[in-house]
Amino acid sequence: MSQTVSKPKVEKTDAEWRAQLTPEQYRVTRQHGTERAFTGPFWDSFERGLYCCVCCDSPLFRSDTKFDAGCGWPSYFEPVSPEAVTEHRDDSYGMVRTEIRCGNCEAHLGHVFPDGPPPTGLRYCINGHAMEFEAGK
Description:
By secondary structure, the chain is mainly β. The chain has a single domain (14-135), classed as Peptide methionine sulfoxide reductase (Metal Binding Protein, Guanine Nucleotide Exchange Factor, Chain A, Beta Complex), CATH 2.170.150.20. The radius of gyration is 15 Å and the shape is globular. The strands form 2 sheets. A 6-stranded antiparallel sheet has the order 3-4-8-7-6-5. The chain contains 2 helices and 9 strands; from the N terminus they run H-H-E-E-E-E-E-E-E-E-E.
């Protein structure tokens, strides 16, 4: 009988995150930053594979859920699993949005909006600097 084993949540000090990540990856994932539209990695890439968290390597999105939203950030209609991401209310900049974080290490990934394609109708708008890509997976 197969048993699901959950891996422990990743917790590191600020110094450890800074040592592991590039300055832009750190700004986006640990300081809840946003890269400028059409400037980050993966916004215009449609290679087959798996997008994982740059901080902890947890799988986040499959390439077959990626679509061109025209917004300048990689966009997906669903994560690899419900546990892959967590949702948080974000009322910064005078807007109310739903922030998306990695379910394993709490890295800020981006936001989710209700204007995506079928089958979910969702658009997970994700910072490219928050992810790494594994081709062919």
